[in-house]
Amino acid sequence: MSDENDIPGNEHDEPVEPLCKLLMRQQLSCIRSHYHDLAQTAAEQQWSHLEYLQRLIEAEVAHRDDKSLERRIRVARFPLFKTLDQFQWSWPKKVNRPQIQNLFHLGFIEQKANVLFLSGTPGLGKTHLSIALGRAACSSGYSVLFTTAINMIQTLSAAASVGAGELQHVMQRYLKPALLLVDEVGYLPIDKLGADLLFQVISQRYERGSIVLTTNRPFKKWAQIFNNDSTLTSALLDRLLHHAEVIVIEGTSFRGKDLVETDPTA
Q1: Burial class (CB in 10 A: 0-12, 13-18, 19+), 97
Q2: Under DSSP, is residue 9 helix (H, G, I), strand (E, B) or coil?
Q3: How do residues 143-165 score in pLDDT, each as one tens digit?
Q4: DSSP state of 94
Q5: What is the pTM assigned to this prediction?
Q6: What's the distance, Cα to Cα, between the start and end of the chain in Å?
Q7: CA angle 203, 207, 211 (to 5 degrees)
Q8: Of 199, 165, 173, 188, which is closest to residue 75 (Cα–Cα)?
Q9: How far is CA 71 from CA 32, 34, 68, 131, 167, in A?
Q10: 3-class state of residue 132 by DSSP
């Protein structure tokens, strides 16, 4: 039977103030909050010192992992909470479920490849799947940023109006994340400056970082988005599609399904 002196703690132990200060200094907040209660459990269950230490460290690591995930999700700026489990597979008339599910293994991020969700009809889940992929990436430790195409272009245009230094600084916001989610490409026309800035982002991320992009326009009509600049459009698509998976989703809008189901004239 273990001697009482070998037990990490007992019911008479009290938190030691110098130890608390040391743990605070080393930013071991979870250990600081739980070491005394866990010591009592260790004494009751006759854990060894090594088992007690392992349990403390495991709790600290889990706590830090949770905090890191919270930070990554906050920095990603997702507009909504969406997961793959929430996706309504039965609604689209055409959707390649195995292809999409395979994306959630996140191999494309390691390969610095891109994913493009294409649907001419809104409300079929392009943004949903984009956000779900982003959250899965966050959970796996990747840095992620969500933005709409127009918001990114407006932010970069404002920086460009200040000067080249400010543009370079703000551009890093879109270049650093392992995964950049660009939503709603093609929903609004983009002027020459905007097209140039979007090209810079895609060009500088080419084979350096992954992009997940959603669009409502087939690629043959992308020149219409960019002031009918076919040269720039061709160069942009060349870089975007070189290492990419294209997911085509067809059907009617999920957001309007309740009206369709209840309106006899629809």
Answers
A1: exposed
A2: coil
A3: 999 999 999 999 999 999 999 99
A4: B
A5: 0.80
A6: 79
A7: 70
A8: 173
A9: 22, 23, 5, 16, 25
A10: helix
186-228 pLDDT per residue, tens: 988 899 999 999 999 999 999 999 999 999 999 999 999 998 9
Return the biggest CA–CA distance within the chain.
83
Q: At what angle do helices 230-242 and 192-205 cross, to 10 degrees?
A: 20
Six-digit token string for 195? 């097209």
* Fold of the domain built from segment(s) 84-258: Rossmann fold (3.40.50)
CATH 3.40.50.300 spans which residues of the chain? 84-258
Q: Around 186, how many Cα atoms within 13 Å sit in the side-chain half-sphere?
A: 20
Please spell the DSSP secondary structure of 212-260, one letter per residue: EEEESS-GGGHHHHTTT-HHHHHHHHHHHHHTEEEEE-BSS-STTHHHH
Report the alpha-carbon distance of residue 211 to residue 201 in Å, rounded.
Answer: 10
Rounded to whole angstroms, the Cα distance separating 5 from 13 reads 12
